[in-house]
Design goal:
- The complex is a heterodimer of chains A (176) and B (518).
- Chain A is mainly alpha-helical and 176 residues long.
- Chain A contains 6 helices and 4 strands, in the order ααααβαβββα.
- Chain A has helices at 2-15, 22-30, 44-52, 65-76, 109-113, 166-175, and strands at 95-99, 119-120, 128-129, 149-153.
- In chain A, a hairpin with a 7-residue loop joins β2 and β3 (128-129).
- In chain B, α2 (123-132) packs antiparallel against α4, α4 (173-196) packs parallel to α5 and α4 (173-196) packs across α7 (270-282).
- Chain B is α/β, with parallel strands linked by helices.
- Helices cover 38% and strands 16% of the residues of chain B.
- Chain B is elongated.
- A 6-stranded mixed β-sheet of chain B has the order 1-14-13-17-15-16, with helices on both faces. A 4-stranded antiparallel β-sheet of chain B has the order 2-8-7-4, with no helix packed on it. A 4-stranded parallel β-sheet of chain B has the order 11-10-9-12, sandwiched between helices.
- Classes of the chains: A mainly alpha (176), B alpha/beta (518).
């Protein structure tokens, strides 16, 4: 009997072997994918691996902010910590990089630094940022030799507007 | 018609319709300037097709896009484009949006129309003409009509429903439209039948509009349509909602996450029918609509045919102005589903069915204090979507978005019945709207991060492949060099190496010199 089950389990472990690490995938799915490295890891996936291995706390991701921390705490069934300010602060409106086209010398260093291929250009030709694809990671800033990249808040349209939560108006009334 | 069905809940409200029905339909005069938002429909933004300084004729396309769900914007009259930029628009946020401004020249010169007999066109050509005319649903949601009709290609439409219900208080634009243009509504229904070939067509009108029902019946007698019936339905709010009307007429419920066409139905508003008739018969694009201007703070409430882009202040002037300009509160839409406007310098757009001019703030911009929920469950009794408003409220308040989704937040039609009956005056709909905003924003962020991940992984893969290719190239080069060396080494075995020989000679000479100096 035991041998039979042993064989079944042994077979199942080979037949239904899970490729990769599902916990890492789940954590990675919750991270904002800016690939900014503010968490001190070389991108979102390495950070997800570090969290899964218990090497890093869940509060090192400023772009994700508290919402990501809460989601990670939910997933991992741990306590939701405050965002660690050492890694940076969370911005409600994300940033996008803008290249000053007058100053750009076309050195391609920023193109090589961009983790999501959001910068377009060629050697000795002006570069430009595809704003829709930019994650605001700021990794293009240090390599620029002429300091021609600015980080500006993402343009908000009428579609980004949110109905206000009545609770926001309720709270001060209660305190007072 | 054998029988009518009922939907769950609903409210009997004070109609307040007589105020604006006392006068006949009039045409609003042209203002000096028209401000036309680039997007007046649900869907992608249009791109401007004109430049500042261009002269445009009435009916010229001035903005369009190539996406599937689109509705072009046309010049409502002749004039000169004086600006393209951001102007305040009628939106609950009070924000600006991209608009084209036309300085009206007063000549109202029309562009050349391309008139053909619509009866000779096939449904594809008819839909294309409707698309070209920039027609959207004029019931209030402003969803482009042509993609809706295109569903007839993939889905069978058994029943076509023409919606003349107009259940919301104060609004009378569809009522006056049916009284004045009943023949055009019937002809529009005929074209819809030509496109969709439904088995039956039901024209639904609430029984508080006897004049409209009579006018429509007369028009149907003059131009009989096959399998078409005009049905007077009981007056109860919100019977004009698409899903509620479907339930009244057919007893069917549109399942969660599906649309009317999934169960063989298609609804069109009466105003849309008139727009379709004019587009097909006269090649006239959608450049105006009937707007109700009513409320207790306007001198002569009534209905006007208004060109799009007309400032609301101009319409109110036509209606004799404010009774009390210092205490005026404006609402676009009705008292149940409308939203407060921040100013009267905003343009009338395709979705503007009614402007309410009130003395008191009936719909606040930001709801304030309310009492706590006492769990009376009145909201549940009146909810026409059969949701549990109280549960939704708790979860929305606790920002438990996944729980609100479990309670089908997005099936809420925001009709306002629950807020209206709440004894604690909880602005329930406002909580749901806020929750929907947050959930939509989270979806958008998730979409963006998924895209960033895909691009990041693609880049990593590309860099890895490049690295492998470089290594391979270097390896081949090294091997080629080694082979060459091996070859030349093998060749030199017989003869002495010239370099070695030269070095030997130098060494010998140095040795000789050293010996000489000694």
């Amino acid at each position: 009997m035991a041998g039979l089950f042993g064989i079944i389990l042994g077979y199942a472990s080979i037949r239904f072997k899970v490729e990769g690490n599902p916990v890492v995938d789940q954590i990675d799915a919750l991270l904002p994918q800016t690939q900014c490295g503010q968490c001190t890891y070389a991108g979102c996936r390495p950070y997800a691996e570090a969290i899964a291995n218990g090497e890093a706390p869940i509060n090192q991701c400023p772009p994700g902010g508290q919402a990501t921390i809460v989601a990670l705490a939910d997933l991992l069934d741990t306590e939701a910590l405050e965002l660690n300010a050492e890694h940076g602060e969370h911005l409600d409106v994300p940033l996008v990089a803008v290249i000053d086209e007058q100053t750009c010398i076309g050195c391609t260093l920023c193109i090589q630094a961009c983790p999501v291929d959001a910068i377009l250009g060629a050697a000795k030709h002006m570069h430009t940022v595809i704003a829709d694809e930019c994650t605001g990671c700021k990794l293009c800033l240090p390599p620029c030799p002429v300091d021609c990249i600015d980080m500006v808040p993402e343009q908000q349209t009428i579609d980004d507007w949110k109905w206000s939560n009545p609770l926001d108006q309720l709270m001060p009334a209660r305190d007072g | 018609m054998a029988r009518l069905y009922k939907f769950h809940g609903g409210l009997h409200l004070d109609g307040h319709k007589s105020e604006s029905l006392g006068r006949d339909l009039r045409s609003a005069s042209l203002p000096e300037q028209l401000i036309l938002p680039l997007r007046q429909h649900i869907g992608e933004y249009n791109k401007p097709l004109v430049e500042v300084g261009n002269r445009v004729l009435k009916g010229d396309v001035i903005a369009a896009n190539s996406s599937l769900i689109c509705a072009a914007v046309h010049a409502p009259t002749s004039g000169t484009v004086s600006a393209i930029g951001n102007y305040p628009v009628a939106h609950p946020s009070g924000q600006r949006d991209s608009c084209i401004v036309i300085d009206v020249d007063g000549e109202d010169e029309a562009a050349r129309a391309d008139i053909v007999n619509p009866k000779e066109l096939d449904s594809e050509a008819l839909i294309q003409r409707i698309c070209r005319a920039g027609i959207v649903g004029l019931g209030g949601a402003a969803f482009p009509t042509s993609p809706k009709l295109s569903r007839g290609k993939t889905h069978t439409v058994d029943t076509l429903i023409i919606n003349g219900v107009e259940c919301e208080p104060y609004i009378t634009c569809d009522d006056i439209l049916m009284r004045n243009y009943a023949d055009e509504i019937i002809r529009g229904s005929a074209y819809l039948q030509q496109i969709l070939s439904p088995q039956t067509t039901l024209i639904a009108i609430e029984d508080n509009k006897p004049e409209a029902i009579a006018a429509m019946q007369e028009a149907l007698l003059l131009q009989p349509l096959a399998n078409t019936e005009i049905i007077a339905i009981p007056t109860i709010y919100p019977s004009g909602g698409e899903k509620q009307l479907i339930q009244i007429l057919t007893g069917k419920e549109v399942p969660h996450g599906q649309f009317a066409f999934d169960i063989g139905l298609l609804c069109q508003n009466v105003g849309t029918c008139v727009a379709i008739t004019r587009a097909l018969e006269q090649d006239q694009p959608l450049i105006s609509r009937i707007v109700t201007c009513t409320g207790d703070n306007v001198s002569q409430p009534g209905n006007w045919e208004v060109r799009f882009g007309t400032p609301i202040s101009h319409l109110i002037e036509q209606a004799g102005g404010y009774k009390n300009p210092d205490n005026a509160f404006l609402v676009m839409g009705g008292p149940m589903m409308g939203f407060a406007l921040h100013s009267d310098r905003l343009p009338i757009v395709k979705a503007s069915n009614c402007i309410m001019v009130m003395r008191e703030q009936t719909i606040p911009h930001t709801p304030g204090y309310h009492d706590e929920c006492i769990r009376c469950s009145k909201c549940t009794e009146v909810c026409p979507a059969q949701l549990l408003p109280q549960q939704l409220y708790w979860h929305a308040r606790a920002q438990a978005w996944d729980r609100t989704l479990e309670f089908k937040l997005f099936d809420c039609i925001e009709c306002g019945c629950c807020s209206a009956v709440c004894p604690s005056q909880i602005p329930l709909v406002q909580y749901y709207r806020a929750a929907k905003s947050e959930i939509r924003a989270a979806h958008k962020a998730q979409f963006k991060s998924d895209r960033a991940r895909a691009r990041f992984e693609f880049r990593e893969k590309r860099l890895l492949l490049k690295k492998q290719a470089d290594e391979e190239r270097r390896r081949l080069k090294r091997e080629a060099l080694k082979q060459k060396q091996a070859k030349s080494g093998a060749a030199a075995d017989g003869a002495p190496d010239p370099v070695q020989a030269a070095l030997e000679r130098v060494r010998e000479r140095k040795k000789a010199i050293r010996e000489e100096t000694r």
